[in-house]
Amino acid sequence: MSDRSAARSPRQQPDASARVLSPAGRRRGIAAVAVLAAALATGSVLPASATPAAGPAASATAASVDTSVSSDKRDVALRQGLTGLVRKDKYPAALASTVDRDGRTRNYAVGTGDLRTGAPAPVDGRVRAGSNTKTFVAAVVLQLVGEGKVDLDAPIEKYLPKLVRGEGIDGRKISVRQLLNHTSGLPNYTEYMLDDLLGKDRHTYVQPRALLDVALEHKALFEPGKKWSYSNTNYVLAGLLIEKVTRRPLDEQIAQRVIDRIGLRHTYFPAVGEERIRGKHPRAYHSPKQGAPLVDFTELDPSWGWAAGQIVSTPSDLNRFFRALFDGKLLKPAQVEQLRTTVAVPEEWGGKGVRYGLGVTSTPLSCGGTMWGHGGDIPGHATRTGVTDDGRATAIALTANMAPTPQGPEHALTVLDASFCKK
Known about the structure:
By secondary structure, this protein is α+β, with helices and mostly antiparallel strands. It is about 30% helix and about 15% strand. The chain is built from 12 helices and 17 strands. The strands form 5 sheets. Strands 1-4-3-17-16-15 form a 6-stranded antiparallel β-sheet, sandwiched between helices. The chain has a 4-stranded antiparallel β-sheet with strand order 11-12-13-14, with no helix packed on it. A hairpin with a 2-residue loop joins strand 6 (about 165) and strand 7. Helix 1 (about 70-85) runs antiparallel to helix 12 and helix 2 packs across helix 10 (about 335-340). The longest helix has 19 residues, at about 70-85.
């Protein structure tokens, strides 16, 4: 799990267009570099160059439309941007949800939800949210901090004694905070096992401790606190910390403390062995390299993501979650302040000015100000999320990974920025 990183008919398909539904009609990172090493897996192979089919456009109800000039322009910019991601960047589908300052929501869907049938992409469909899972996990850890059960600056050794050991790796020297902001120096387990998980082990269940064992076979990247490096291993340990402190399963804690608490009706942590996506959802596609045929990757065992990337959600639920995270519905003020305490990240990872907090990124907007979010990539889906301090939010979900074109990920971030900045 990382951040960043067409129909079969020979007849030409109609142009893709955005469909928008109001919450009454259908309620329910952000910059980063892909570290997914893609390997072709078994599945239905489809031509990457085929033109995605477009579904019929649907009008928004008056309740969901911001009638100000600036918001209209942002709406047009988002529609055009999503359409460009499908037409030009060859994503089969692009979904999005926006929230304005007054809490009004618009949901969008562009392109084809199923390349075999040509069915349109479902508005606010469920997708694998990838590394947005890390933000859910960080929220639970910070709740435990607020309850006095976890100390951010205590070593992970205090909670998971004698577990974190390896070449240059010592859990007595790595703090909980360093896990959450990726300054631990721990190697990233996905770099060593993802090829198999995308191929022969795509349907294999992997236990969290096995993920950790893979990481600990490799030496530390650097001394804790000295540098920054994105590592899914950090959040596997954060998940194990939650289970040790609460004596309850991670999925239950995320459900009770976050999902149920703020009413995320279409978000869930897949059960052991659950490979399909529940409810309405677009099919998910993956390819071993840009320009290669797309493979249907909708069904897979996501256990290898666990606390680093297993959650399934919708664009509107992701917006609800990130808004709640920053407006005090989930965390006490002291923990929100810790959440927003950031460290610098390499520009080649996140882009100019991007910083990493505790499970969130801060990204400068082209029009000034900052958006907070995370985003995630997992085979088949890519998500980009952002929320501003005045309550505006945008979540975009794309149904291919790796990106069909080299410019796709950058263009997705441009669309995300325009949803806040177009005037």
